[in-house]
Amino acid sequence: MKISLSKKGGLPALPEQYKDKAPKSEVLGIMPPEVISEFQAFIFDKKDNTFGVAAVNPQNPALQRFLKDNLPEKSRIEWHSATKHNITSVLKFYIRDFSSEIGALVGVSKFESNGNIAKLVDTIIDYGFSEKASDIHIEPLRYETAVRFRVDGMLHPMASIPRDIHPAVVARFKILSNLKIDEYRRPQDGRIEPEHIPDASLRISIIPTLYGEKIALRILDDSHKNLMLQNLGFSEKQADILMRNIEKPFGMIVTSGPTGSGKTTTLYALLQLLKKDGMNISTLEDPIEYALAGVNQIQANVSVGLTFASGLRALLRQDPDVIMVGEIRDSETVIMAANAAMTGHLVFTTMHTNDAPSAFTRFLEMKVEDFVVASIVNLVIAQRLVRTVCESCAEKDVLPEAIVKKIRERKDILNILEEEHGIKGDGLAHHKFARGKGCKACLKTGYLGRTGIYEVLEMNKEIHTLVLNHAPAEKIREAAQKAGFVDMLSDGIKKVMDGSTTFEEVLRTTRLT
Ligand SMILES: [Zn+2]
């Protein structure tokens, strides 16, 4: 395919008849909204093999590569220049129903009656739940208010609201969450329990910004249906190891991964399994992500001196059996948590390391004695969240050329493909993998929902000795592999092979840092 740009600065503007209009339906699926927003470009038309593309910066090499990989061979591109406004307005058409519903509400009688504002706010909340968003952002911009949803970890523009009704919308949210209506200058936090949605609540945070108060809502689903180990993507073998270790009377279970990798959810799932009569389970968290019945959850709060360390000290005087410490950030907390595990408590916590074997070296770096680490750390789970392929529009296809190229640069992936799945280097380009084409159910992204990819490392005699000798993480990994340890990358590739996710997702989340 040839991408040629006409003389510099000579690009025609986006033709009038395409402004504020949905792109032709046959090109709608090629660029998902997050790609449009990342590259600030979109495909608006197609005639024979010529695609009309409007871009803020057509010279962007990443954009050119994307088009090369995603348009049929021998396609021609007719470039047009786009303004930022063109991009924002085209993005609105990707979420037509919500947008038009909001549009209809906004259009009625300029919002003189409060009834409409209340209906508008309810509609935003309802859509947040029905799209399975984790967060809703209501952001005042210079000329409009943007409504964006975070779905499966990605932010999507959903609709826009006229600037002049923004204060009324904020006031309505403040009423619903019992916040001060006349406070505009300070941040406020609260909670909304929508009457019409059972078992659900929203955490709301409002902060003043340049163009008005910005609202962020976190949707809290208290129904726990997602907290079963098998729903989280653990294999049967991994789940067995987890079960065996939570039944131990003391020691430490650590989940590890970057922010947003689902580590707290895993710990919650384990605590749910542990919950038995006659057991005192206490947690110290910041923030408390779900309410767990039968568990004493304490919110760490630095502003009143309730740090992880001081909270843990107080907690230990409450005769707990099981303790969860939201995150280990400093030596004082980690040493106290380790002591608790030494003295007959089962302690759950989270850490930031790249992989499971590194957790042991991290403990040593944080000044926990080697014999303590060797004797208390029962289990380390490292994890990432990947998006799952949308079942409504899944199909099998060969990989895009660019992905094949990326994979060929990764020896570790090629080894796993050949050794575990019998796919040799040159077979890769012909093998068909699951991929979502993009449909209404998945907001044209091809993905719906998420699952975890995991590595589960259990302590054994050999690792015990290695920790005592301060061995590097690599040695611990080798010892674990001898005992059947499956690393995160292998687990991810297994999930690509069975069609639950894609190489793009595994590559994105397991990037070496
Ligand atoms: Zn779909």
List the SSEs and their pairings.
Elements lengths: L32 H7 L1 E7 L2 E6 L5 H10 L5 E6 L2 H8 L4 H12 L6 H17 L2 E8 L3 E8 L2 E9 L3 H11 L11 E5 L7 E10 L2 E10 L14 H11 L4 E6 L6 H12 L6 E5 L10 E4 L8 H9 L5 E4 L5 H12 L3 E6 L5 H9 L4 H7 E13 L4 E5 L2 H8 L2 H11 L10 E5 L10 E12 L2 H8 L4 H10 L5 H10 L5 H7 L4
Parallel strand pairs: 2-3, 10-14, 10-15, 11-12, 11-13, 13-14
Antiparallel strand pairs: 1-2, 4-5, 4-9, 5-6, 7-8, 8-9, 15-18, 16-17
Helix pairs in contact: 4-5, 5-6, 9-10, 10-12, 11-16, 12-15, 14-17, 15-16
Tell me how many strands there are. 18
Structural class: alpha/beta
Largest sheet: 7 strands, mixed
Distance between the termini: 34 Å
Number of domains: 3
- Largest beta sheet: what is the strand line-up? 12-11-13-14-10-15-18
Judging by the overall fold, what is the CATH architecture of the largest domain? 3-Layer(aba) Sandwich
- Unreliably modeled segments: 1-8
CATH-assigned homologous superfamily of the largest domain: P-loop containing nucleotide triphosphate hydrolases
Give a written overview of the molecule.
A hairpin with a 2-residue loop joins strand 8 and strand 9. The two termini are 34 Å apart. The chain has 513 residues and is α/β, with parallel strands linked by helices. The N terminus is likely disordered. The radius of gyration is 26 Å and the shape is globular. The site of zinc ion (ZN) has 9 residues, from loops.
Short overview:
The strands form four sheets. This protein has a seven-stranded mixed β-sheet, with helices on both faces. It has a six-stranded antiparallel β-sheet with strand order 6-5-4-9-8-7, covered by helices on one side.
